[in-house]
Amino acid sequence: MIIRSKAPLRISFAGGGTDVSPYVEERGGVVLSATIDMYAYGALQLRDDRSITVHSLDYDIVAKYDVDGELPYDGHLDLVKAVLRNMNNGNKQGLGFFLYSDAPPGSGLGSSSTMVVALIGLLKHWHRLPLTQYDMAELAYQIERKDLKIQGGMQDQYAAVFGGFNFMEFSRSGVIVNPLRVEREIINELECNLLLCYTGRTRLSANIITTQVAAYERRDRDVLEAMEELKRITIELKNALLQGRLDDFGMLLHDAWCNKKKLAKQITTSQIDQLYEVAREAGAIGGKILGAGGGGYLLLYCPFDRKHLIAAAVEKLGGQVVPFTFDHYGMQTWEVKSCAASRSVTAAV
Hints:
Layout: E1 2-14, H1 23-27, E2 29-47, E3 51-56, E4 61-66, H2 78-87, E5 94-101, H3 111-127, H4 133-147, H5 155-162, E6 165-171, E7 174-179, H6 184-193, E8 194-198, H7 205-217, H8 221-243, H9 246-260, H10 270-281, E9 286-289, E10 297-301, H11 307-316, E11 320-321, E12 332-336, H12 339-348
Parallel strand pairs: 3-5
Antiparallel strand pairs: 1-2, 1-12, 2-5, 2-6, 3-4, 6-7, 8-10, 8-11, 9-10
Helix pairs in contact: 2-3, 2-4, 3-4, 3-5, 4-5, 8-9, 10-11
């Protein structure tokens, strides 16, 4: 038997940065996001020996550990080790994991957090654990931010677990995920008008977030004002989306990007600025870099009859246009009992 999982990556339209401690506990944050048809995948197979093997395609790593070992955090597959430490409860069963993602780490689509969610899904399914969606998202957050002390926000874990379009509220008292009932025709039109462009570069988001947190803690006025403005824009974006005012949605994306850039100087680069400027000159109404910034994916809102021209303009500068649709289901797990599937995973690990 094999257990498989997949969890969707996400596009964050606005509010990213207001979900980061200590800002979120002191002032509260909001994020508007949606998941897309790009995923983090995992497979779990029981082994006959007393070892844990991990094959990660993203890092091109095959590692093997003893079930009686300590699984030390040493910079190699620490996310996998942390999930096992939290969820395997000293179980001595040999396990084989096979992991890969449709987007590289550092892409701005929340791939690392989404992989943690996919791993949690595998072990939840195997151990038959009664975890709610909120439980899984909170556990993923605790593993990354508390156990491993990786700087970052709270939105990615919840987006990967819940899936779909969500308006999320973050505060000292907890997280509220508000699923949005966006009309199908609005979603169709939004897909037609959005363009996703890979810049060709990844980045280490923790470094950018460390700069942002330091600016907030010293009460930098520009940063404080930008974060408050981001929250206001996020609420306006949510309303524009639900009401089908998509040109307003595109202009608000531009406003959000202008404020996002004020949080840390590393959020944008000369390459990103050039891509965005060329896209705007070709007709894009608005857009933003996804995730913490510094590289990864650029999201653009385009009039449909200009989208092909905008795509050509950014590709001329080295950007790679990536087609996508929205995902509505969140993290999923299932069992595969065919012998052929079992042989393929066994061979991989």
